[in-house]
Amino acid sequence: MLALLFAAGISMVFALLLTPLFAKLFRRLGLGQFIRADTPTTHVMKRGTPSMGGVVFVTASIVGYFGGHLLGGGRPSASAMLVILMMGGLGFIGFIDDLLKVSRQNSLGLRGWYKILGTVVVGVAFALIGVNYRDSHDRSPVSTAVSFIRDLPFDFIVAFGLVAGVTALVVWIVFITVSTSNAVNLADGLDGLAAGASIFAIGSYVIIGFWQTQQSCFNPGVAAENVFKCYDVSAPFELATIAAAIVGSLIGFLWWNTSPAQIIMGDTGSFALGGALAALAILSRTELLLVLIGGLFVVVTSQVLVQRVYFKATKGRRIWRASPLHHHFEMKGWAEVTIVVRFWIISGLFVAAGVGIFYLEWLSSTAP
């Protein structure tokens, strides 16, 4: 428990104290935000705001996680390392994208297919390492079955055989990774929006991981009458610890990222957060529950897809004034802070519903 608390505290203090220093450094290096001509006019004032702020909270999360273990005891686990791999790998792709935008002084960073290719490479590495590694209880961090709150009956290897099954599993994990990272990226358009929503979503995995630890199939304290509904998750407390470190870093970062932002997370941050969220869902075996936990990101992404399809089908007509959805409300005259706070509320409600369903499933489980 101490490792979790120390991880959250260290990462929060790191981000809170060092974010303004990174902002000054980025400003001196000319790493400022480029504003597209077709964005709302209220964004013009943000031109030149230091970008790539994701570097700060990704670094803070890693420092907090290892610092938490150093002070609180325990050893780092493969599960947490996989989360760091996904977060850092996708963050690096976003960093390249941000760097190209700044150097070219336009919004054309890394080409879309290159970003997808990079995400696929990280997702494949994550999947193959996760499914082949075995912990002290001979469990792999990545399950070969599709999961909702636990593993569902559908298992890729059972259904398709070893080679085809592993291939299908990798494709499934890559799909989750690409979808989640792009969804968070689309939601990152207003000061503090993606950071605040991610605090809710990733914070839910602190609760989920802690509860899975208490009800682990390998926890000797689990009551005999509850053994049938225990969780077969590898190192759930470590997942809660790395999630707490990320949340702590985001809280410290949000202090400076809220409107008017002194630093912007950029694609570096949004891709990293999407990767961390995808990894936590896969490793905690709550993949399909992520649709609810990340409900705000799903809504924003769905609106963009519907808008694009309708625009092409009607040759230029729109349903909403702009997309992603938060820009539509800007066009309607809503204040930026109003939009952000209301979207946070929506995100919190989605997360509360997801965590509630997770707990209700445990309460309602009956012996076979």
UniProtKB/TrEMBL annotation:
Reactions that this protein is recorded to catalyse: UDP-N-acetyl-alpha-D-muramoyl-L-alanyl-gamma-D-glutamyl-meso-2,6-diaminopimeloyl-D-alanyl-D-alanine + di-trans,octa-cis-undecaprenyl phosphate = di-trans,octa-cis-undecaprenyl diphospho-N-acetyl-alpha-D-muramoyl-L-alanyl-D-glutamyl-meso-2,6-diaminopimeloyl-D-alanyl-D-alanine + UMP
Signal peptide (UniProt feature, chain positions): none
Key word Ribosomal protein present: no
PROSITE patterns: MRAY_1, MRAY_2
EC number: 2.7.8.13
Subcellular location: Cell membrane; Membrane
Family annotation (Pfam families): Glycos_transf_4 (PF00953), MraY_sig1 (PF10555)
Keyword Membrane: yes
InterPro entries: Glycosyl_transferase_4, PNAcMuramoyl-5peptid_Trfase, PNAcMuramoyl-5peptid_Trfase_CS
Reported cofactor(s): Mg(2+)
Pathway: Cell wall biogenesis; peptidoglycan biosynthesis
Entry keyword set: Cell cycle, Cell division, Cell membrane, Cell shape, Cell wall biogenesis/degradation, Magnesium, Membrane, Metal-binding, Peptidoglycan synthesis, Transferase, Transmembrane, Transmembrane helix
Topological relation to the membrane, as annotated: Multi-pass membrane protein
Residue ranges crossing the lipid bilayer per the database entry: 6-26, 52-72, 78-100, 112-133, 156-178, 190-213, 233-256, 263-283, 289-311, 339-360
Top-level EC class as recorded in UniProt: transferase
Annotated function: Catalyzes the initial step of the lipid cycle reactions in the biosynthesis of the cell wall peptidoglycan: transfers peptidoglycan precursor phospho-MurNAc-pentapeptide from UDP-MurNAc-pentapeptide onto the lipid carrier undecaprenyl phosphate, yielding undecaprenyl-pyrophosphoryl-MurNAc-pentapeptide, known as lipid I.
Family: Belongs to the glycosyltransferase 4 family. MraY subfamily.
Record protein name field: Phospho-N-acetylmuramoyl-pentapeptide-transferase
Biological source species: Leifsonella bigeumensis
Gene: mraY
